[in-house]
């Protein structure tokens, strides 16, 4: 689709001026915060610092009318044969658990935690992650991201991701669940080097509602902006917009959700992305109960992007499908086993 999310109520994906055609049907003043942090001896949401004595300047612009409910900064570097955190800072309702290693590849795994349990109206969360040259990070979440009712103002997450030369990032969060009368905006700004490798998977699920209907949330806006660092500076590789706004019209029909209620996305940026890989992934998805399409971006400074969209009526089915796709990439490119976070 060539329209942006702001111009159309349909799920939109703009993949640059030379995007390849899809391989299959491609679905493609703030209110005061109502939640306060607990005070007293039991409070645990204090800033945490590693190798630094002061909070860093995150570089993420914040609204003058909205104070962040949670902030997280994470820097990953290479030390010997392992990737490690060279700096971390958190404040408010965001933190990461202690790092662990799922295999002997040296890839470090961090688990992002929101002790508050959910996103509410006017909540703002800021996440800033940098993976240094040659470093390897797997970032996941402890549980699903839940968006509850947001009267007065939307909940928002702003994430900045930066990958160095030869750096690798796998972003594998649990599903995003939007409940009745929820409004949520997620903006992710990504900068990669031509030799970087990025894999991001996400599943969007409608939450429970009293009448059992699937689309009772107000609005979901998810925007990924991906830049490649070149000799001319950062150049846009892909601007991927997704907008679902049920009150604006029927989102269940043809050309939109096609009768499905759940949506899965996979974004891959790597110099090894090509049409042959897209064909392999498309063939792999045929064995699942889902409606899937794949698009390629243009090639910029030797690297290419791939966006997969999949529609289903089951979170589990989409997790299996995206898991199979990432397993293919892990084995083919890195010789690693399929990702199974629940066994650790």
Give the uncertain stretches in residue-range form. Answer: 1-64
What is the number of helical segments per DSSP (H or I, 4+ residues)? 2
Mean pLDDT, all residues = 82
What about the largest sheet?
10 strands, mixed
Calculate the terminal CA-CA distance, rounded to whole Å: 40 Å
Radius of gyration: 19 Å
Could you give the order of the helices and strands? EEEEEEEEEEEEEEEEHEEH
Per DSSP, what share of the residues sits in E-state strands of 2 or more residues? Answer: 35-45%
Number of strands: 18
What number of structural domains do the residues give? Answer: 1
Overall shape: it is globular
Would you mind describing this structure in some detail?
A hairpin with a 2-residue loop joins strand 14 (219-230) and strand 15 (233-244). Strands 4, 5, 7, 8, 10, 11, 13, 16, 17 and 18 form a ten-stranded mixed β-sheet that branches. It contains two helices and 18 strands. It has one domain. The relative contact order is 0.15. Helices cover 9% and strands 40% of the residues. With 344 residues, it is mostly beta strands.
Task: List the defining traits of the structure above.
single chain, 344 residues, mainly beta, ten-stranded mixed beta sheet, globular
């Amino acid at each position: 689709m060539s329209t942006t999310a702001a111009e159309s109520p349909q799920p939109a994906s703009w993949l640059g001026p030379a995007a390849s055609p899809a391989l299959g049907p491609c679905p493609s003043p703030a209110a005061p915060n109502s939640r306060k942090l607990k005070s007293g001896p039991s409070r645990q949401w204090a800033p945490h610092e590693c190798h630094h004595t002061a909070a860093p300047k995150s570089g993420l612009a914040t609204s003058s009318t909205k104070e962040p409910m949670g902030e997280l900064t994470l820097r990953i570097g290479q030390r010997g044969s392992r990737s490690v955190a060279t700096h971390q800072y958190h404040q408010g309702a965001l933190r990461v658990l202690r790092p662990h290693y799922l295999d002997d590849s040296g890839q470090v795994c961090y688990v992002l935690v929101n002790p508050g349990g959910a996103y509410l109206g006017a909540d703002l969360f800021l996440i800033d992650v940098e993976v240094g040259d040659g470093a390897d990070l797997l970032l996941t979440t402890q549980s699903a991201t839940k968006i509850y009712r947001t009267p007065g103002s939307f909940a928002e997450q702003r994430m900045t991701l930066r990958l160095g030369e030869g750096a690798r990032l796998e972003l594998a969060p649990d599903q995003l669940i939007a409940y009745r009368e929820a409004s949520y905006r997620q903006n992710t700004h990504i900068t990669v080097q031509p030799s970087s490798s990025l894999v991001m998977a996400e599943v969007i699920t409608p939450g429970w509602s009293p009448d059992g209907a699937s689309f009772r949330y107000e609005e979901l806006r998810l925007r990924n902006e991906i830049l490649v660092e070149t000799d001319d500076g950062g150049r846009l590789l892909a601007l991927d917009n997704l907008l679902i706004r049920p009150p604006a019209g029927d989102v269940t029909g043809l050309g939109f959700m096609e009768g499905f209620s759940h949506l899965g996305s996979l974004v891959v940026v790597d110099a090894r992305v090509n049409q042959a890989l897209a064909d392999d992934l498309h063939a792999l998805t045929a064995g699942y109960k889902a409606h899937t399409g794949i698009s390629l971006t243009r090639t910029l400074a030797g690297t290419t992007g791939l966006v997969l969209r999949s529609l289903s009526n089951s979170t589990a089915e989409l997790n299996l499908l995206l898991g199979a796709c990432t397993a293919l990439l892990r084995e083919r490119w890195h010789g690693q086993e399929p990702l199974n976070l629940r066994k650790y």
